[in-house]
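Q: For a teaching handout, I want to show students what a protein-ligand complex looks like in token form. Below are the inputs, and the small molecule is magnesium ion. Please produce the holo structure.
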Amino acid sequence: MSLVTEHHRHGNNPFGILGKLGRHDDGEQNVLALNVLLLGGRQSGRSSVGNALIGGEEFKTGTCIFGVSMTTEHQLLSRNFPRYLRRKGAESDLTLRVLDTPPSFPRPKSVHELCPEGVHVLVLVVRADMHDNTHLEEHVETLFGPEWRRHALLVITHADHLKEAGLQPSDYLTQTTDWLRALAAKVEGGVSFVENSCDWPSVRGRPIRDRLLNLSARNHHSALTVRTEVSL
Ligand SMILES: Nc1nc2c(ncn2[C@@H]2O[C@H](COP(=O)(O)OP(=O)(O)OP(=O)(O)O)[C@@H](O)[C@H]2O)c(=O)[nH]1
Ligand SMILES: [Mg+2]
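A: Here is the structure, written as tokens, with magnesium ion included.
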């Protein structure tokens, strides 16, 4: 597995076939490269989910003190998972390019600069025990238009607190706030619960990786383009 830090680079495409399955001219492995955007409120667990997705600890995480988020800049990390999937009888690598963002709203220009080809999957991150990000959906729609739903999945972090409270994820979803229940029903990629406090990142990331891969496949690996004309 190889990790690449891509800090504010333009049009970076590790294999030149982003979003499509293709074969290198030299006959090397097929590669599916997907751009993934993490969105969510302050301390929602975005960077931890990013770490789970890439199977490392490279995104900086931690408790924010004095109201300043741990993540203040957009950061793009890329990881290749060799022979992760099969398509049409052939093995293929999966390259995930995960873009972590400052809380709530990424700057459209920064998203466009870092992912000029667009975003294949939006990962909306909400914390199970503290969710006041009622405008999340509205902002995602402003950034990407009505198509965002087809590309979105919801990840609910701090699921360990649900366990402590004796609450099953399905019960949680029926009892939670209206906006979160509505959001869960809208995202076509479904809902994942994660406990970022346990396991190795690569282990807890696997179900989310598979979920986002399925979602992207359903969209034929098409990408959403951010609306750069909006100002947030
Ligand atoms: N118990 C528990 N702690 C978690 C979980 N996910 C994240 N945390 C912790 O919550 C804190 C915030 O996590 P981050 O991943 O940094 O959250 P963030 O949304 O990137 O935070 P900012 O960038 O500061 O907005 C860290 O101390 C994490 O270790 C979880 O599922 N369970
Ligand atoms: Mg962060």
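A: Two things your students might notice: The first strand starts at residue 2 and ends at 6. Residues 7-26 have pLDDT under 50 and may be disordered.
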